[in-house]
């Protein structure tokens, strides 16, 4: 996966860069990698803020000319996975001490 600098913070730019740098990469995989990058660089303090940022990233990617069906499907699975992990983490350790 290519590295990203400050000019590539936009989800749309990351998504497009991933797909143009590897012609064999699927749209769904690029969407998940983009959401992972947004997750890594996010300054969100709550699950609600994080969900809002990830939703905004999905909407930005949907404005590109790439397949929206696979993009939406992969993004939805990623968001469900993240929210399940977050809920499970809250149940195990609500203070995130471990």
UniProtKB/TrEMBL annotation:
Chief location bin: cytoplasm
Keywords associated with the record: Initiation factor, Protein biosynthesis
Species of provenance: Panagrolaimus davidi
GO-annotated cellular components: cytosol; eukaryotic translation initiation factor 2B complex
Localisation: Cytoplasm, Cytosol
Lineage top rank: taxon: Eukaryota
Protein name: Translation initiation factor eIF2B subunit alpha
Similarity comment: Belongs to the eIF-2B alpha/beta/delta subunits family.
Assembly and interaction partners: Component of the translation initiation factor 2B (eIF2B) complex which is a heterodecamer of two sets of five different subunits: alpha, beta, gamma, delta and epsilon. Subunits alpha, beta and delta comprise a regulatory subcomplex and subunits epsilon and gamma comprise a catalytic subcomplex. Within the complex, the hexameric regulatory complex resides at the center, with the two heterodimeric catalytic subcomplexes bound on opposite sides.
Gene3D superfamilies: Translation initiation factor eIF-2B, N-terminal domain
Any one GO MF annotation of this record: guanyl-nucleotide exchange factor activity
């Amino acid at each position: 996966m290519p590295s990203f600098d400050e000019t590539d913070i936009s989800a749309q730019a990351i998504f497009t860069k991933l797909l143009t740098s590897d012609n064999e990469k699927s749209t769904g995989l690029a969407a998940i990698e983009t959401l992972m990058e947004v997750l890594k660089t996010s300054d969100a303090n709550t699950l609600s803020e994080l969900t809002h940022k990830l939703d905004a990233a999905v909407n930005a990617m949907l404005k590109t000319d790439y397949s929206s069906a696979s993009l939406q499907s992969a993004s939805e699975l990623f968001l469900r996975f993240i929210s399940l992990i977050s809920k499970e983490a809250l149940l195990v350790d609500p203070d995130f001490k471990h």
